[in-house]
Design a protein that fits this description.
The chain is an alpha+beta fold and about 625 residues long. Helix content is about 15%, strand content about 25%.
Length: about 625
């Protein structure tokens, strides 16, 4: 008897096969026949896989509730709405919000202490009519992942400066060519004397060195097709404006630069390919327009020995620390843009002893960038933690081999035993499946990164670094005993020394440095988790943490914020200082009963309050926070 794929049963087709396919391959598989397509259209499980694979960074499984009034298919299509928009607010230093402040509506901004602040969510219109997969934030920029895997950052740079900071190279540095070398490098990578497409009228000849101190707001558009939306206008919107052009643009040929600022993006005519063994630094043009405040990041050239397998690679997941970005592609490769990088071209990381080509190598389930280190969860290995890497040599630079070995260790007893994890400053926090407890691995990253032998970390040392979070585990045990309910930790998030822990009973617990140090000193402040009543039972989907402020995304698409708005920088997104005081304080209230307080030059919000939404009906679907700035993706409904 001949069996067909339909004999596997609908449950295997939907829940088992889909689990091992990318979102694109899921679409292709269920389009093979009318029967498979019918299963696809009527299965909520498939849309659940699609949503979680595409939009949640492989973090803990996003779940629906009865309060949401959305099934998985509706949620997926809501997230794929091309009318979604990216909004940012907060401190605007170095252009990190992604737009020119002179073009921000006056009702959305204010001037404090000589700086212009944006206190109300304002649209970055470069990303309008594009599906955005994720937005995260470094301490100096937003990092935005588009649907086709293109990666962008806002502002002058994603980092503060070209200094030595982990997890970038510490003991060795990436090769930094001289300006003359860079000019020759640019010329030799573009064997043509055709005019350079730029706002400036540059005649034929040697192209300028990619070290311009400024860039131009109306650089040639990368959208050669002139693609537009269907033209529907939902409502008037608080948005910024930039000039646009409609010229055809040849493929971009980026070259590394030694400038402390991102490289100038010059549109240079692509030369005819010539036989060479050196990987090409070519990238297809983007339909998303770059500007003074929006720059594209690039994957490094393909290694010659892996070119056949990586020809169509794309970024599927991103995460960001204070001054570094990490990304995962659809071939299980991890990339970094850190303080060692000399251009917008990233570095592919290699982990000696762990080969992605090995038969034992499993999926990279999740990546997470902390304040000064990073980690990845890999099937059959566990939690891989890296704290520095080897610098790119001069030989590698000229051969365009942007590959670096990471210095890492594997946390003991985490192989196939992790529910979720996060990374902060000098610590990795995780939930184990086997005992359902919360743990931390905490160590001095800089001390290890500067050792004479940075690979000399023993298993005993790692075990000493790793301890259970007794304060949170005891709380969970007491809750289970008192309420006779099986409470489990389900998700963790963190930034710097702050973190949040979610439970299966819709509880959100917060912690800080006192809780991290409780195992060492037993301090009273870290004895119990911080519990904010307004976050309990509210179906909170995501918590993002800045330097001193917090954002919480609810299941119904509401965005809440609280914490300290340093120097009235606007990071809470609640409006101007005066409007907040007028709305949330009254003369009859005592100081202790106010939800909002002024403390010196800071605005302190004690309870989660709703962020001012854009002026049309919609839902927040993704949020980001770091430093003194915040952002998110808003979808009209």
């Amino acid at each position: 008897m001949t069996l067909s794929i339909y004999d596997l049963g609908e449950d295997i087709l939907t829940s088992q096969i889909s689990n091992y396919l990318s979102p694109e391959d899921i679409f292709k598989f269920f389009s093979l026949s009318k029967t498979l397509y019918s299963i696809y259209q009527n299965s909520s499980i498939i849309y659940q896989y699609l949503y979680n694979k595409k939009f949640t960074n492989n973090e803990n499984n996003y779940t629906l509730s009865l309060q949401e009034n959305l099934n998985w298919k509706q949620l997926f299509y809501l997230r794929c709405n091309r009318h979604q928009k990216v909004y940012t607010w907060g401190q605007s230093l170095m252009g990190r919000l992604g737009y020119n402040l002179s073009q921000v509506p006056i009702e959305n901004r204010s001037e404090n202490f000589g700086w212009m602040m944006v206190h109300t969510p304002t649209n970055i219109n470069n990303f309008n009519d594009h599906i955005i997969v994720d937005i995260v934030a470094t301490g100096f920029s937003f990092i935005i992942l588009a649907n086709d895997g293109e990666l962008f950052f806002t502002g002058n740079d994603w980092k503060q400066s070209h200094n030595r900071a982990t997890p970038g190279p510490i003991k060795t540095q990436d090769y930094r060519p001289t300006p003359g070398t860079m000019a020759l490098y640019t010329l030799t990578n573009n064997q043509t004397l055709e005019p350079i497409r730029s706002r400036r009228n540059i005649v034929r000849g040697v192209p300028p060195m990619p070290m311009m101190n400024r860039r131009y707001a109306n650089d040639d558009s990368d959208d050669s097709s002139g693609e537009n939306s269907d033209g529907e206008i939902i409502t008037p919107d608080a948005t910024t404006t930039t000039e646009s052009t409609s010229s055809s643009v040849p493929p971009l040929v980026p070259a590394p630069t030694s400038s402390a600022l991102p490289q100038g993006r010059r549109k240079i005519t692509q030369p005819e390919p010539t036989p060479t063994s050196t990987p090409a630094l070519t990238h297809r043009p983007s339909k998303i327009k770059e500007s003074n405040f929006i720059s594209r990041l690039f994957l490094p050239p393909l290694p010659p020995n892996r070119k056949d397998n990586l020809e169509k690679r794309k970024i599927i997941s991103i995460s960001a620390g204070r001054e570094h970005i990490i990304a995962l592609d659809d071939y299980n490769n991890i990339y970094t843009w850190d303080t060692g990088c000399q251009s917008n071209v990233g570095v592919m990381l290699e982990f000696p002893g762990i080969s992605s080509n090995s038969s034992n190598f499993g999926r990279v389930i999740k990546i997470s960038a902390g304040w000064n280190l990073s980690a990845a969860l890999i099937d059959n290995y566990g939690l891989i933690v890296w704290y520095t890497r080897i610098g790119i040599t001069e030989e590698q630079f000229h051969n365009r081999e942007f590959i670096s070995q990471a210095k890492y260790f594997i946390i003991s007893f985490t192989k196939n035993d992790i529910i979720d994890f996060t990374v902060g400053s000098n610590f990795v926090m995780f939930i184990r499946k086997s005992d359902e407890k919360l743990y931390q691995t905490r160590f001095n990253v800089h001390e290890i990164a500067t050792r004479e032998d940075t690979s000399n970390i023993t298993i005993d040392e790692i075990k000493q670094f790793t301890n259970p979070m007794d304060n949170f585990n005891h709380w969970k045990q007491q809750q289970s005993e008192n309420n006779k309910e099986n409470i489990r930790f389900t998700k963790v998030t963190g930034c710097f020394n702050d973190f949040s822990v979610f439970t299966n009973h819709d509880q959100v617990l917060l912690g800080n440095l006192h809780h991290l140090e409780y195992h060492d000193n037993g301090n009273d402040q870290g004895m119990k988790p911080i519990i904010i009543d307004e976050l309990q039972g509210k179906n909170i989907k995501r918590i993002e943490i800045g330097d001193y402020h917090y954002l919480a995304l609810t299941a119904d698409g509401t965005l809440l914020s609280w914490g300290t708005e340093s120097r009235f920088c606007g990071c809470l997104g609640l409006g101007s200082k005066q409007s907040i005081l007028d709305q949330y304080t009254t003369p009859t209230n005592t100081e202790d009963s106010d939800e909002v307080k002024l403390r010196g030059n800071n605005l302190v919000v004690l309870k989660p309050l709703p962020v001012k939404p854009p002026p049309y009906k919609g839902k927040w679907v993704c949020i980001a926070a770091s430093g003194w700035h915040s952002g998110g993706i808003y979808v009209p409904t």
